[in-house]
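protien #1 (seq + structre)
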Amino acid sequence: MRTKTNFPKALYIHIPFCESICDYCDFTKLQYFHSFAEKYLVALKKELNEKVTNKELDTIYIGGGTPTSLNDEQFEELLKMVDPLAKSVKEYTVEANPESLTLSKIKLLKKYGVNRVSIGVESTNNQILKSINRKHTFEDVKTAVDNLRENGINNINLDLIIGLPNVSFKMLEKDICNILSLNPNHISCYSLTVHEHTVFYINKIEEPNEEYSYEAYKTINSLLEENGFIHYEVSNWSKPGFESLHNLTYWRNEQYYGLGLGASGYIDNIRYKNTTNFNKYISFKNEIEQEVVTLEDNRQYEIMLRLRTKEGIDVLDFKDKFGYDIYERNKDVIDDYINRGYLLTSARRIVPTFEGMMILDKIYLDLA
């Protein structure tokens, strides 16, 4: 049995600022102000220099919040800060909102080697966008995608939210068709979650129930697979070869650096989360919550995370890590799920089907 001793090969950086706060959002975020952003970048650079000891990374992901809410000078300062780590990465992603992904920012992305952009679309219906306090239109999305391609950035992800209020199945199908018309390489579809302290929670907006979510994902999966997309993770589809390498780090239960306000990371068998207190963070008082990951914890993470993807669990690798054959120990349970069409066994792997991905919580509990 072995534990993790290798250095993280992935880096996540959180930029908490947004031009406006969406009604459903519960991420660590705050309204953009120039002076706040200036102080934040100073603290972020200090954390980066202190924490990132491995300079040979495979992936970098700058998320938020909205990284593109920074002004051009601040945005370039951020990219300059990261640049020494970006020389040999395979995938370098920056999240963006359509309305703040200006041509000048796109040119900066290209200049500093960013090769993948993830755009928060959420809906392609302008009335729905307005109702949830999004500040862009679908026309803005089209413009952003065109501008990215014209400047040589072709690896594009588009995000949708499933289960927003007043969105019918017909509108959902229209959303997918509109997204497909832009020919992205990757599409993420996340089911709406209503959190405390959000406008949705205050207004008593309800999350979609299991039946609605199942039918929605079934509809989406059918449309996307017909158009050459692979359902490689519960909420993610890609064209062949365009899976998110960075996010696969999480789902493969591998280590990663997490920098910035409220960011999470996983280093040397410790999962940690940075402070969500902005004043403490910019004062270099980054109080960190830590979870020491025992072998038993790691075993459960391995099952839970790897079953989210079409890669599934590698039986031999699992035995090498945890000292037992997961198939042999759970043969009756796994065979039952196979017979009912929820799991497959292929090339020494236990792999979820689409139906299996829809009931992962139950499968995990039965195997953990």
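ok now protien #2
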Amino acid sequence: MSEQSPNRIYKILVISAYRTILHTRAEAELFIRLAKEGHMVDVITVQNAEYKEQMEALGMRVFEDHPTKKISFEFIQHLRDRIRKFDYDFVHVFNSKGLTNAVWALRGFRSKLIAYRGFAGQTPWYDPMMYLKYFHPRVDHIMCVSKDIEDILSRQMMSGRRKLTTIRKGHDPAWYRDIVPIERSQFNIPQEAVLVCFLANNRPFKGLRYLLEATHLLSPDLPFAFMFIGQGYDDPDTKRAMDASPYANRFFTLGFQENPLPFLAASDCLVSASTHGEGLSKSIVEAMSLGIAPIITKIGGNEGLIEEGVSGWVIPPKDSNALAAALSEMASDENERKRRGEAARQHIHNHFHIEQSVEDLKALYQKLLG
């Protein structure tokens, strides 16, 4: 192999399900920008992927035959044929079905296999499935979306951190410039309300119970309205807890929204009350990119997202009192709310920009081939 140089043109194959631009943008744009720099980037994805036309316009080959099974001998053979033909430097895999096939397909090839981990759940060393994925010896490196995930994996892997690198999925401020907020009146939300958005599917670790408990501690004089976006709010226990809140008549449950950004843009604050399990929360980054200062919990995946007292509010997890205090402070001072919102927008621009993610990825490439 030729000596590594900063100007080397890389040959890259990406395996990921780019169904919609909205939900996969931060990931797909990494490779689009590499293609614009002149690197050879091919993509294996699902049929009717929204990104196909844009990618092909840049000269990227798009193969619409993403595996549908954990082990597909047909896909493994197709993948081996492509690797043999194009001699990729790197094969990036962003999901489980892609990875369990790729570890077999890459046997005997020089291509570096880079897996991705974006969820902070446990990956115990004694779980046999981990050895068909992240702990498989054919995996050369794992790209972690947050330092917390890197820490979790390092405690389970015999190689420690040697195969781990944290590369955040950066965003571009330009993506948010033309977002038009919803008309509150369309959903009977009072125009003068301080609108709090809870954007998450209702799962225990998302911490909805602590937000509902916090509403019992808020002054009724504060003009709150609460908007819940996501699935699972029709659960009987959840409905009972929501109906018992003194703010029940100011709850607006809007269900799943294909594009939540206009709803988020109409809000005054985003609350993320997660107790654990977050990688790099997309909704928090989106809110901050829209100039909305969020209230978040101090958990591993949120580390570095907010400067407490500057670009948002950071509270302990599972602490309804702290959440109520942050909500009260946010709602009581409009100028402070807006000041922190603008600081939040600038913080994402300075520390979570996609251009930095591209540079971090190229640095990883140099490390693996150097």
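Residues 222 and 310 are 23 Å apart (CA to CA).
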